[in-house]
Design brief:
alpha+beta; D-amino Acid Aminotransferase, Chain A, domain 1; D-amino Acid Aminotransferase, Chain A, domain 2; 2 domains; 9-stranded mixed β-sheet; 6-stranded antiparallel β-sheet; 15 strands; 29% helix; 27% strand; globular; binds 3-[O-phosphonopyridoxyl]--amino-benzoic acid
Length: 286
């Protein structure tokens, strides 16, 4: 069952509401995490908690509970849900304030934890791969709203997604403000070229995905080369394989981009191998 925890109390789905004066709603002023539970175990909870507190630090928001309490609360909410496999949305908003944007007028941030499930695409997409489009909307400039902050401002990514929906494709690839390939709407991107993985460097201004890091480790263990280098659309069009990684998406191939078929047009050998290794990792739970 869905479980919602807000600032110390559990609520039913229908009663799980926040104030219209919350700056998370008024200004997108807040941060969040998406975390998966496999077989009742939280996948890499510590890394998600670290990223949440780092995102909060970067926006000058002090989370009103220590990390240990946050981790305990998430684990308790998962146990309460009785869900074997789940998706958790952990949100920290600036809290209630007045109608001006000054964050000092918000005395207490709100903490929200939702335990539910998520499914992005039908199962066949994991075999066939996704059709994609390069969106005209770039991700935020890294010195404007750093893409490394997992903030409540997803409008650039949503506008990119809308372009994809209008064009009838499954997903979108976004460029950064300089025209380099950045990420998908809620996923990191890899290409495979001659058995080597290539992915944009985290410092260049993308979200450093926890799935991305796990896949890089798995690839190195399996003796694939891994290069974190700037990529252009040309590199995607001419890749042997391309795939996306994310907590919600897990590992999923990109088989068509801007009308070009990538590789053989179905999930490739390396993508399948890494998806299987990722499945084994989450099943093991370390
Ligand atoms: N880039 C962005 C912009 C993201 O939002 C990732 C990469 C992957 O990171 P992780 O740590 O999950 O491997 C994300 C992930 C969705 C969805 O519906 C995805 C995310 C957030 C909200 C929704 O796919 N974030």
């Amino acid at each position: 069952m869905t479980v919602v925890w807000i600032d110390g109390k559990y609520y039913d789905r229908a009663d799980a509401v926040i104030s219209v004066f919350d700056h998370g709603l008024l200004y997108g002023d807040g941060v969040f995490e998406g975390i998966r539970v496999y077989n009742r175990r939280l996948f890499r909870l510590d890394r998600h908690i670290d990223r949440l507190y780092a995102s909060a630090k970067a926006i000058w928001l002090e989370i009103p509970m220590p990390r240990s309490d946050m981790s305990r609360m998430v684990a308790e909410a998962v146990a309460k849900s009785s869900l074997q496999d789940a998706y958790i949305r952990l949100v920290v908003t600036r809290g209630k304030g007045d109608l001006g944007l000054d964050p000092r007028k918000c005395p207490k941030p709100s903490v929200i934890c939702i335990v539910d499930t998520i499914k992005l695409w039908p199962a066949d997409r994991y075999e066939r791969g996704l059709t994609c489009l390069t969106a005209a909307t770039p991700i935020h400039h890294r010195e404007s709203l750093s893409p490394r902050i997992k903030s409540l401002n997803y409008l650039a990514h949503i506008l990119a997604k809308v372009e994809g929906i209008a064009a009838g494709v499954d997903e979108v690839i976004m460029l950064d403000a300089f025209g380099f390939v950045a990420e998908a709407s809620g996923m990191n991107l890899f290409v495979v070229k001659n058995g080597t993985l290539q992915t944009p460097p985290a410092y260049a201004g993308i979200l450093r995905g926890i799935t991305r890091d796990a896949v890089i480790d798995l690839a190195r263990e399996a003796n694939y080369g891994v290069e974190e280098i700037p990529l252009n659309r040309y590199d995607l069009y001419t890749a042997d394989e391309a795939f996306l990684t994310g907590t919600a998406a897990e590992v999923v191939a990109v088989t068509k981009l801007d009308g070009r078929v990538i590789g053989a047009g179905t999930a490739g050998r390396v993508t399948r191998d890494l998806a299987a290794r990722f499945r084994a990792l989450v099943t093991r739970g370390d």
